[in-house]
Amino acid sequence: MDPSVVRPVIHSSWERCRRANMPSGSLPLCPIDTPALEKAIAFNRHLVESAKLIMDKLAHSIHLSKSVVTLVDTTGLVLYASATSQDLDNVPYGMPGRRCDEATIGTNGMGLCIIEKKAIHVVASEHYSSSLHYLSCSASPIHDPDGQFVGALNLAIDTENFHQHTLGLVEAATHAIEEQLRLRSLVHNQKVILEQLDEGVIVLGCDGVITSINPQASKMLGLDTQPVGDRIQIYIPSSTVLQSILADRNAFHDREVSFELREGKLFCTLSCVPFGDSGVILTLRGVKRMRHYAARVAGAKAVYTFDNIVGGSAALHETLRLTQVASQSGATTLLVGESGTGKELFAQAIHNASNRRKEPFVVVNCGALPRNLVQSELFGYVAGAFSGALKEGSPGKFELADGGTLFLDEIGEMPLEAQVSLLRLLQESEVTRLGGKQAKRIDVRIIAATNKDLPGAVRNKAFREDLYYRLNVLTITIPPLRQRYGDVELLIQVFLNKFVTTLRKKPLQLSDEAMTALKTYQWPGNIRELENCMERLVNVAQGNTIDVVDLPQDIVAGEKQESLTGPGGGALSLKGFQKSIIQETLRETNGNLRRASTILNISRTTMYAKLKQYRIEVDAFREA
Question: What pLDDT, on a 0 to 100 scale, did the predictor assign at position 584?
Fold first, then answer.
């Protein structure tokens, strides 16, 4: 061999073949490996499908005898061939299932391309085997979208027809195959993305023909099959909104619409983006899902459960029993209690124990709503309902709570004009937006709360009587802290531990005198006042113990007032007065607890709690 005459790449290949003791004469045809071929085609399915059409066009454009276009994988196995049967007889090495790597048939275009990973041609006698000298091969590597080498394209033609531009033709075809692989990958990824989206996507072509639709959109339209190729009007008939979209092709976002389907109705928020000369992309989001997102952004979430309610008093036990009953019912519930007793906590616990726990929990503070905005806040409004309204309109709190629970706090402060709309909603389960005409059916569980005397407000014409009776289905009284005997000490410890942890303080304890003062204080602000007091004490504590001197002055003064009891101690305190009244009533009834409870207008449970608190022995009042 003369290295100055033979190209280095060919020279190196010849040397490898010689070291392998490969004969330079005729080589026997390797057998067709059918099992390996089937396995390789399945593995390289995208490559084969992307290359077939391009290879057939290349073979047709050349139209020369003894020409074969072959596709091989990374091992040199022929996956596909474009040629006539006669040409394959003349070039049997190109038959699918045969191997064309260097180790099998010596120096050749496909084998060298696999080794060098670059475009290359092998002309006539450059083939190591003399049985291939009548051919000239031009091969080019193929890479996938990630740049990985996946195979090679080869054009074998009779040497008499070989031209230096042949390799450029093969490289152009290889580039086209790589583009097909890239587009196929892109389409596949887009399809996967569309299928994973939890919102409906429909791509419409000319005249509303569906060119693509994802499963979520099919589900929203009530379809079991993919309607690609059909006109969208078949599934959404008689829609002026759809007609306008197809005619005007104007872009818009999150417009609330309702479509009459062949079966049922679809409420959704619709977005439209035009593309191309006549196409549009429609995005459909379920109104209920959008409501959930809006409620979540607005902080409408119930976080408390019955496990968060601390206490073991008889009064609290009865309240818990009734609220747990309410949680298993869809009945409208009215929570009555003083400010600070935790009415919203109970409302959240009811919601989280109900079958609506995964749905929105929306809070409306009726006392904080501006009088002129109550209607729009609660019931929403349509576009142009009033000056300053959003152009697309806005849902109200009732729509945001659809499927879940609406907590109407301070219901006694609701203006009379809003009470009329609320009453209608409770009766009809429908809401009509301000300025709108179409009523929307909603499913909302109402929990209301008040610290007002609603029956008194009804008598004074400050609250509608019919609304009161509609709300007064299941009324639950939340006891004030002063009636929850024994719970103050438990709550003190809970709040103490909480603020020591959150404020990163060292462990604290209360002196006996401080604990006594806190327990005897009446807590007019209830649990809210107690919690704020404990936060203050943890903040200002100097040592390891909280003493009486650390307590707020009103608590110390209240404790001193409670100690002034007895005939010689001046005016009786509230506790002393209560104890005296109970003793006098027991004396009059000869210790009959039922009659005494009736006279005092308190429950038997409360009577037992009072007897325990004041250490009154009933037997002392019963006649022997």
Answer: 80
Tokens of 64: 């020369």
Residues 6+ apart with CB under 8 A from 157: 62, 64, 66, 67, 135, 136, 166
Angstrom distance (rounded) from CA 233 to CA 208: 7
Does the CA dihedral 426-431-434-437 come out positive or negative? negative
Give kind and range of the element (H or E) at residue 143: strand 135-143
Given a contact cutoff of 8 angstroms between Cβ atoms, the answer to whether 231 and 208 are in contact is yes
Nearest to 37 by CA among 80, 101, 91: 80
Q: With b meaning 16 or more CB within 10 Å and e meaning fewer, what string describes 1-29?
A: eeeeeeeebbeebbebbeeeebeeeebee
The gap from C-alpha 161 to its chain's centroid, in whole angstroms, comes to 65
Q: What is the pLDDT of residue 291?
A: 58
Lowest mean pLDDT across 187-201, 215-229, 343-357, 403-417: 187-201
Q: Are 325 and 426 spatial neighbours (Cβ–Cβ below 8 Å)?
A: no
553 Cβ contact partners less than 8 Å away, ≥ 6 residues apart: none
98-101-102-103 Cα dihedral, nearest 10 degrees: -70
Contact 509, 546 (CB under 8 A): yes
Positive or negative, the CA dihedral 259, 264, 267, 273 is negative
Sign of CA dihedral 22, 28, 31, 37: positive
Rg for the chain (alpha carbons), in Å? 43
| Both tokens assigned to 34 | 């059918």
Compute CA 386 distance to the chain's CA centroid, rounded to the nearest angstrom. 33
CA separation (Å) from 258 to 287, 291, 298, 390, 463?
10, 15, 25, 19, 37
Give 78-100 pLDDT, tens digit per residue.
999 998 878 888 888 889 999 99
Could you tell me what percentage of the chain is helix, strand and coil, using 3-state DSSP and rounding each to the nearest 5? 45, 20, 35
CA dist 416 and 613 (Å) reads 43
Q: How confident is the model at residue 68 (pLDDT cuts 50, 70, 90)?
A: very high
The tokens for 409 are: 């706090």
The residue behind tokens 């085997």 is 129
Residues contacting 403, CB < 8 A, separation 6+: 288, 291, 356, 359, 360, 443, 444
Query: Number of H helices and number of E strands within the chain?
Result: 24, 19
Nearest C-alpha neighbor of 439 from the set 389, 372, 382, 360: 382
Contact 396, 378 (CB under 8 A): yes
Pick from 226, 220, 335: nearest CA to 270: 220
Structure tokens at 244: 């306008």
Residue 601 corresponds to which tokens in the numbers above?
Answer: 């207008």
* Largest CA-CA distance found in the chain, in angstroms, rounded: 138
The residue assigned the tokens 């726990």 is 357
- Strand pairing category for 405-409 and 445-450: parallel
Q: How far is CA 330 from the centre of its chain?
A: 26
Secondary structure in 3-state letters for 25-37: CCCCCCCCCHHHH
